[in-house]
Batch of 3 targets.
Target 1
Amino acid sequence: MIDQEMIIADIIARHPETLPVFKQYNLDCYECQIADLETLGHGAGVHKVSIDQLLVSLNSALNK
């Protein structure tokens, strides 16, 4: 299960099936060097994305 304290780059590396979700929310994290250090919660806040909606979408991608 993905949570807001996880590092973005770790999520993408462990769960590449989440990449379309990041793209859907216009989060180009896969191209950003800060993704190696930034938590999902922080990144969502910076980009003004609802962390609750993002978490639902990301975790749904894991269950497909």
Note: The CA atoms of residues 7 and 37 lie 6 Å apart.
Target 2
Amino acid sequence: MQLVINTPGTFITQKDECFRLKQKERIFDISPLKVESVVITNQAMVSTQAVVMALENNIDIVFLDKYGDPVGLVWFSKMGNRLWCRP
């Protein structure tokens, strides 16, 4: 699944080997085994623990601007990783 974060103020961190998403008083835990990529489209915060967990599980993190265009990508840099091409 592609995890799309588009709610401003969402905080993404790691909790017990899962991604934890906090939105005000709402909390969601998602297993990294179910996630292929994380797309962040709005004002969100990502902890370094969440980034490291994504990298360890070969999960790409894509940052989009307010128009939905990619502005950055974090990916696992070891051999065998997917290649990303800019349109």
Note: Helices lie at 48-56.
Target 3
Amino acid sequence: MLKEFLQQKDISIYKLARVSQIPYSTLNDIVNCKVDIANIRAGILFEIAKALDVSMDELYQLCSNKIVIYLEKYSTKGTVFVKNKKYVLEFQYHNKKFIDELCPVKKEAAMFIESIAQWQMEKLISDYEMEGMYELCIKA
């Protein structure tokens, strides 16, 4: 995610605005997920990518605010994305779609969001399987 990338590189939004010549307010909206990547002009994305010395594809991944999670135990892939300033986990397991709000978007959460998502995904699948077993026991 772009905000974490900037923090890792020790680049402020102000500094990025100066180097890329993109208005601070525009960059602030992009970095803080207030605007969807699909609604950003290609020229703006090009200038940001150039200033950060990353490809357009890399920048798109950083701005898409999606993290792919894979649970080998269940052979299941999920996605974590930002919606309404919260991390949301979405995945499918045995034709059932799961959507779960994880936590607010904060600096502390960003460091652990993959682990939090994996833990929650495993919990939801485990609960789902237990419900299925319970149903089988009742019917028997």
Note: The chain has a mean pLDDT of 89.
